[in-house]
Amino acid sequence: MPRNRFSRRKFLGISAGVTGAALAAKTILLDPGPAFALPTPVSASDRVRFGIIGIGMQGSSLLENAIQLPGIECVAACDLYDGRHTLAKEIVNPDLPTTRRYQDLLNNKDIQCLIAAVPDHWHKQIVVDAVNAGKDIYCEKPMSHTPADGVEMVAAAQKTGRIVQIGSQRVSSAICAKAKELVAQGVLGDVMLVEGSLGRNDPTGAWEYPPPPDLSPQTLDWETWQGTVPKRAFDPYTFARWRCWKEYGTGVAGDLLVHLVSGMQYILGINEAPKQVMSMGGILRWKDGRNMPDVHATLFEYGQVPVYMRLNLGTETPEIYRFMGSKGILEVTEKTLTFTPQRGVDDSPSYYANSFPRAMYREYAQKWHMEHDPVPGQEPTPKGITYVGISWDDVKPHLWNFFQAVRTRKPVVEDAVFGHHAALACHLANESYFRKSAVYWDEGTKTIKS
Question: Which three-class secondary structure state does DSSP give residue 175?
Answer without folding.
Answer: helix
